[in-house]
Amino acid sequence: xxxxxxxxLRSIEKIKEQVSGPAIIALSGGVDSSVCAVLAHRAIGxxxxxxxxxTGFMRKGETQRIKDTFSDMxxxxxxxxxRFLKALKGIEDPELKRKAVGEMFIRVFEEEARLLKxxxxxxxxxxxxxxxxxxxxxxxxxxxxxxxxxxxxxxVEPLEDLYKDEVREVARALxxxxxxxxxxxxxxxxxxxxxxxxxxxxxxxxxxEANAIVEEELLERFHPWQTFAAILGKGTGVxxxxxxxxxxxxxxxxxSRDGMTAESMELPWDVLxxxxxxxxxxxxxxxxxxxDLSSKPPATIEFE
Length: 304
Ligand code: XMP
Known about the structure:
With 304 residues, this protein is of the alpha/beta class. 42% of the residues lie in helices and 19% in strands.
């Protein structure tokens, strides 16, 4: 704990030394950017403008949670839902989808940075991010791509030497809510990579509701490393005596140490059945629910 406390004090001092004008940070609601925002706020107060871009691909209740948690800061909430949906229209290829989300993210962020006349960029890059982006397995759209386009006086990365579990320790010490400090990994492009094929408003709403049910049923009881719902496509079903074509929802629950490999969890049948009946009952457009048994490798954790 002493180590964490002294890390906090040292990084606040360092941010104070490094930042002398308006600074921005892209706040995603994840533990890294949240910790960074709190440290920077303690260091430079009103000079910090956290930017939260609502892509429309966030989980249920996430935007409100962020507004509540960071209400004491100059939080800029940008509603870009329509722009993101338009940017993804007609795109089915997973990598093109990721690219489109990443590019739109940078565009919206840049616009806001200009409006705020930001001179400093604060980023929640952690040590493994550097290794991963060098590996180039998948085009992660973390804001690591921003500095090449924008002209900042300086880029400040207070967490660059920390591992994830150390960031979580700092989050706890900073009294961030446990929904943030213990949060599961969530991909940058959000729910858009949990919809196989084209993203539409209807699919986003269905996957968001299904995902909330999966989290409610599994998170606290089974502590999966990651769990979520995804939409695979359409299949036939019978609802209220009518033959329908509804969404096929996949449930994913994995144990893992670092996300590089993963095992699907052996969940009790009654729990899986309850999730299935809740999703098909509470989300009218879903006709079928399946459980993904795949490990990583050969599968990945996300579907795209
Ligand atoms: P995969 O699907 O490659 O995912 O097995 C491994 C871990 O990385 C997360 N993930 C992402 N995280 N931006 C992120 O910050 C992304 O674009 C992204 N894509 C996947 C995934 O949720 C899992 O924890």
